[in-house]
Write a structure and sequence with these properties.
The structure is a homodimer of 115-residue chains. Chain A has 115 residues and is mainly alpha-helical. Chain A has 5 helices and 2 strands. In chain A, strand 1 and strand 2 form a beta hairpin. At the A-B interface, helix 3 and helix 5 of A face helix 3 and helix 5 of B. Chain A binds a DNA duplex (30 and 30 nucleotides) through helix 2.
Chain lengths: 115, 115
DNA sequence: CTTCAACCTGGAGCGCGCTCCAGGTCAACC
DNA sequence: GGTTGACCTGGAGCGCGCTCCAGGTTGAAG
């Protein structure tokens, strides 16, 4: 059980972003205290860490929503979810290759300044 | 000498983006025909390829503008320009490490679906 | 019991990097 | 000379992903 600030600290998202993710339905069924304050479980946290991973690798929020919606539908969507992640992983590989290539160009450019 | 569409094709930027880059002063002194149409030189093209590299590695446009402005000031800014690129390259290294780390997480998650 | 930082809501606003549009001009080809 | 597609300008608009704000509530510490 984590307070909002603790969940923010552990996930790397801001409080506003956590509220935003709940508002758009990415993070569903977040618990509340009797006073109306959010309480994040370990399960919520592991979702947030997955979202962190997907965001850091450039997945659009709309696609994360699709993934989360599939997961909520139940076990029978496991194949779809796997395929979604696989397609994303392939895009990430392409992104890494491009980044490496452009990094090499950049280093070459810098070497030019060193002479 | 390249027509706008050719410059777009070779640089990977859209026509609108080329015009936009000129408008904000990132790309300066682009030549024109008597009729007012842009003519891109090899020099313009190599600038565009550098911008492509910097954008692909996540440099904000404002910083590319700073770099371009320094270059226009003359040779005496070479050290500043080199330092700017070096700082950027270090950020890119960090970005590559993060991307690799999150890619590994993603692959692990996918492996979980395979069992 | 008081205080005060952390939290709540709904909704507006923002920064970035383009992208699109209207309404016109240019120039190569038939 | 007419057609057509590439190009021009200034300015508005957009998609994304938050971020901020006002005005109010909660709850742990002293």
């Amino acid at each position: 059980m984590y307070a909002p600030s603790e969940a923010a600290r552990r996930s790397g998202f801001s409080l506003d972003t956590l509220r935003y993710y709940e508002k758009i339905g990415l993070l569903a069924d977040v618990g509340r205290t009797s006073g109306g304050r959010r309480v994040f479980t370990d399960d919520d946290l592991s979702w947030l860490l997955l979202f962190r991973c997907l965001r850091d690798t450039g997945m659009p929020i709309a696609e994360m929503c699709r993934y989360a919606a599939l997961a909520r539908e139940g076990e029978h969507t496991a194949d779809d979810r796997q395929a979604l992640l696989e397609r994303h992983a392939e895009r990430v590989e392409e992104q890494m290759r491009l980044l490496q290539r452009q990094y090499d160009h950049l280093r070459e450019k810098i070497r030019f300044y060193e002479t």
